[in-house]
């Protein structure tokens, strides 16, 4: 059990991959050739769609856990408050 209550955990998901490359690789896994056997259709960006997902913001940092691919987020300002409180 890792949680003490209120933590937000983030997974290390590895390097980002292109949706186009993912589609091409899936087609090839079935022994077919992209654009020859299966056409790839581009639907465009939909309203509100994101190009990238921000997992944490600039006020947070990732703290390693006992598990290599799992991190817990920590608010930098909260950490500074705790340091100041410990000094008092």
UniProtKB/TrEMBL annotation:
Membrane-spanning segments: none
InterPro entries, A to Z: Polysac_CapD-like (IPR003869), Polysaccharide_Synthase-Rel (IPR051203)
Signal peptide positions (record): none
Pfam families (alphabetical): Polysacc_synt_2
Gene3D superfamilies: NAD(P)-binding Rossmann-like Domain
PANTHER family named among the record's database cross-references: POLYSACCHARIDE BIOSYNTHESIS PROTEIN EPSC-RELATED, UDP-N-ACETYLGLUCOSAMINE 4,6-DEHYDRATASE
Protein name per Swiss-Prot or TrEMBL: Polysaccharide biosynthesis protein CapD-like domain-containing protein
């Amino acid at each position: 059990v890792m949680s003490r209550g209120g933590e937000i955990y983030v997974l290390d998901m590895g390097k980002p991959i292109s949706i186009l490359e993912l589609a091409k690789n899936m087609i090839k896994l079935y022994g077919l050739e992209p654009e020859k056997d299966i056409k790839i259709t581009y639907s465009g960006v939909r309203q509100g769609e994101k190009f990238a997902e921000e997992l944490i913001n600039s006020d947070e940092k990732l703290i390693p856990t006992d598990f290599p691919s799992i991190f817990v987020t920590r608010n930098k300002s909260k950490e500074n408050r705790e340091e100041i409180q410990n000094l008092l």
